[in-house]
Amino acid sequence: MALGAACALAANGCGSEPADTQELLNANFLGLSDLQKGQLPQAEEQFKKVVALAPRDPLGYANLGLTYLRGGRYAEAEAQLRRARRLSPASPEVGLITAKLYALTGREAEARQTLEELRGDAKVLYALAELDGATSDSAAVRRYERRLREVLVAAPANLAVRLKLVAFFVRQGLADSAVQQLEELRRLRSELPKEAQPHLDATLQTLRANRIAEARGPLDRFLHIMELTAPYQASLDEVKWVDGPIVGRPVLTFKPSTLIQARGLFPMGSTSSVRFVDVTSDAGFPVPATAASALAVGDYDGDGTDDVFVSVSSADQRRSVARLYRVQGGYVVDVSERTGVSTSLPAGAVYATFADFDNDGWLDLFAIGGDAHGYLLRNTGGGTFEDVTASARVADVGGAHSATFIDLDHDGDLDLFVVGYGGMMNRVYRNNLDGTFTGAWIGSATGARDAAIGDFDSDGRIDLFVARENGAGVLYRNAGLQRFADVTAESGLGANLGGAIAVGDFNNDGWLDIFLASQTRPELWRNSGKGAFTSDRAAVASIQGASRLEPRTVEILDYDNDGWQDLVVAGRRGVALLHNDGRGTFEDRTSLLPATLRSARWLASARIAVSDIDRDGDRDIFVADSAGVHLLRNDGGNANLAMDVQLVGLRTGGGKNNTFGIGAKVEVRAGAIYQTRVVTGRITHFGLGPHLKADVVRVEWTNGVPETIYFPGTDQDILELERLKGSCAFLYTWDGKEFRFVTDVMWRSALGMPVGIMGGGSTAYAPAGASQEYLRIPGEALQPRNGRYVLQFTEELWETAYLDEIRLLAVDHPDSVEVFVDERFVPPGPVQLRLFKPVRWRPPLSATDGLGNDVLAALRERDDVYVSNLTPLRYQGLVEPHDLVLDLGEDAGRPGTFLFLRGWIYPTDASINVALSQQERVKAMMPTLEVRNTRGQWETAVASIGFPSGKDKTIVIDLAAKFPTKDHRVRIRTNMQIYWDHAFVASDASASSVRTTALTPVSANLHPRGFSRMYRRGGRYGPHWFAYADVTKESPWRTIEGAFTRFGEVLPLLRSADDMYVVMAPGDETTVEFDAAAAGNPPPGWKRTFLLYTDGWIKDADLNTAFGNSVEPLPFHAIRQYPYASGESYPTDSAHQRYLREYNTRTPARR
To answer: Cβ neighbours of residue 15 under 8 Å, at least 6 residues apart?
Structure first.
């Protein structure tokens, strides 16, 4: 670790700038370079200059102390570090170096005290864990576990820390805790090395069986393989503290966000100190070079630093040659041959971009070759690329000259959008996520110059803007359902829409603007809200000089970290740097660039890329031109502070978002600075001005789900949460003491839910009928409250509920008999009530999973202990095929015997269904019931036994005449994510008498309530459950538009199924009461169970649900399909129209 920040003076320090600012910067960078190379005497000399030039800043003392520490000169190191600590006592970085010095000199107590004063930083927590791990007393062991868990809270995607926690749990004999961490690892990480996967599988299998001693061998082998990978080493670098005096050890630079004083050497926003220095040769790039035609940056090896792809002309080979350079420690190494990139692109490339097209966590490479064909190179994760162009079906790109990867259909994977000159139409290759793409077109425009993406109207869907060669342009609004509409005219965009495009929020108002660098004049279109644009004349006047360049490309960067997005423009006649002054205009800062690059002649295919290549907290610039590739190091841009945000999508058990959240919207507030960015790469950079850290980060993922982090870290990995966003309305009942969550209701409705892609690209949808169902409520869960049975129906997820009819049945029956209904999922439609009255319950004689593990204990009782050894696949709701083998005993199969299975299902959602329909690798397998035939083989007895309709539901399977032999074992096989809690065989006492009383509501009131705290009942394998008494008013969801039912009395809407219903928004609650006296009391020796009947619809707000973001069009019982079939409409008679006018008048405020 070295302090790689720009120097700053304390606000109340010497009060004047050093005589030579550039000398100060140069001394600091030279010192870091010498320390990197292990040249300690030279580093000492440079850092002494830093101290002399800036005696009131802690930076020089800290790095000088680190230099002495590396050389074993501990006394001198301590003197310098004490000075740094006095100047910056709250700096974690300085404290870490000081604590390491104490530890190396045997002063553990002082090391611990120093670190304890700085708690909260991930590196500090990890250092404390290492100190605790070095001792064996029980208190230290408990602290070690707690510290590692705290590190994971701060850095949830850190691979090294999670594996260290796994090793700790195994040492302590805590098998289930180790399994939990390994399961989480599998959900988060990119594809593991192939040689590691068998050891991980063996470890999980033995730990789940609690065979800890047997698990240690495969775990050790797994850990050994992982420790040698670049992602492991990179994650370790994120948290480990400074090492001892090992000469030549690579230096870890970091950003100045917690070191430099908030008021520094230069006024906030000033660019007087910034310079871009051409360090192409120093970094190891070939000089002199030949013309470069393609340029891309991306971290292909997962070590946390972007690497560089270029394509340059080769005089020897008389063609363009593709080169891939790995960046390590600020220097580049040519790995073109080793990785297979050069041989895969025989004609070089005219365009290239990195993207993780297969969601395995490794950046792949797409290039448009010099032969005008597309090339897709898949990153194997082992340091090589394989050409999958043919199997992916992306070779024919029709002469395209640029491409963008973006999730246009919001199904969780990156689609490929290409544009080209001449008569080429805009073409999109839809990613099927099975290794193939399907070609299609967007609009009819041809001859595109450039394209950019963004949610311009803030409806949650990613839109497209295409600039054409002829100066025209087209704005395509994403209308959902894989439809795009040309809204150029109504958007207000004028005629000057050609040129290179940059999309960004240039005035920090939360709306995405469009900058166009054309060969005639630049243009800045301000988004005044919801995709309405006006030309910003003042901004245009300030950047008019950029047109002299004949621009070919433009990139956004905040080069001085002041929180305002600047521009770098390159063209045939040079490059320009435009500084956003935050007042609506731009200042020409081209003078900050090397003189040799300001007016050179460029190729028509000039390229720019931006990355913090030296990881010092500011953005460096790559330029590809007629003289090759240039690396322009940003010196001084980190005088203001910054943070990098990296989104981490779930690799398994999710499938809702692409790996790095490309296309997501990220908002950051730091003091008065508010910024909005579209995620276009692995890292999204935010300048923070004088602020040490951001106050809040808000992410809106590409599936529309928001996530907010308050007081994030200096840099922040934002992990996609496993969040239930749609499931159905919730039912709470009064149990005599409190309202308790019972289950979810109207689960049989799937209004607007896509179930497949049909021929011609049309979408097939689920049946649109109402959910009509009976659900069981245990008697103890519903008790009178002031003479009434009180039920609370809430809408707490991202969906709209249409509640049309509610009835409550009080079923009285003998104590010796229980009452059930079949709560399996069936398509919408009328349902007949059938009561099951099981007697002589018998658990299975045995129960095993597909691997032979005994799972009977999980099924004996209704105890929230679930059969849970499921292996997740990419998508939520689907897992590896799994078996449940039950020996049901000799009575099974007789007439009147049934198998009762209670459990819950984690469902897919609309966007996952779209993704599944586009590929062939993974398909849902409905649960089947198999029995042994006369040959001893398994054969299907019931092709589909169905699945529970949501949470804690019971399905009933008729066993009569199902067994051809005396072997009464059954095998239930599926790949759906179903967790079983209770299984028993029983006879149906159909002749047993019961008394059923139908109750109708006596009052119903709709009102605002909020959102209950969600947790997992029964542990991590249990269903999502909700604490009614723990509620927040803050909605986590985007607003659903349309007219909801007004608050107040709504009893007339719930008495019958008449298409006049209560329309509930997220956060609403309907309190429904029934007269308890009307049911009387059960006879002596009897007890009461309740059945709830509901009729209504649920429409989730998923971006792929038909009209999911609006209340309308309204459903009705005679509906044939949704979206409506031709000629269909909601009833227009006077009663229904009066209902709409009187009840549905509430429009929630837009978030």
So the answer is: 9
Name the CA dihedral angle for 120, 124, 126, 131, rounded to a multiple of 10 degrees.
-120
Determine phi and psi for 874, rounding to 5 degrees: -60, -35
**318 phi-psi bin (left φ>0, alpha ψ -120 to 50, beta other):** left
Q: 985 near 899, Cβ under 8 Å?
A: yes
Task: Give Cα 160 distance to the centre of its chain.
Answer: 20
Here the tokens at position 155 are 């850095």
Element of type H or E holding 1006:
strand 1001-1008
Neighbours of 1127 (CB within 10 A): 6
Name the percent of the chain lying above pLDDT 70.
Answer: 92
CB under 8 Å to 334, separation ≥6 — which residues?
323, 324, 325
Q: What is the pLDDT of residues 624-668, one digit of tens each?
A: 888 888 999 998 898 888 999 998 888 777 778 899 999 999 999
CA distances from 676 to 510, 527, 611, 658, 876 (A): 6, 13, 19, 20, 29
Which residue in the block uniquely carries the two structure tokens 């929230």? Answer: 864
CB atoms within 10 A of CB 1085: 8
Residue 604 near residue 550, CB atoms below 8 Å:
no
Please tell me whether the peptide bond between 1083 and the residue prior to it is cis, using omega within 30 degrees of 0.
no
Pair 352, 344: CB distance under 8 Å: no
Span 126-148, average pLDDT: 89
d(CA 152, CA 171): 19
What is the C-alpha to C-alpha distance for residues 319 and 316, in angstroms, rounded to an integer? Answer: 8
| 401-451 confidence digits (pLDDT tens) | 899 999 999 999 999 999 887 666 678 899 999 999 998 877 666 677 888
Q: How many CB atoms lie within 10 A of CB 1145?
A: 11
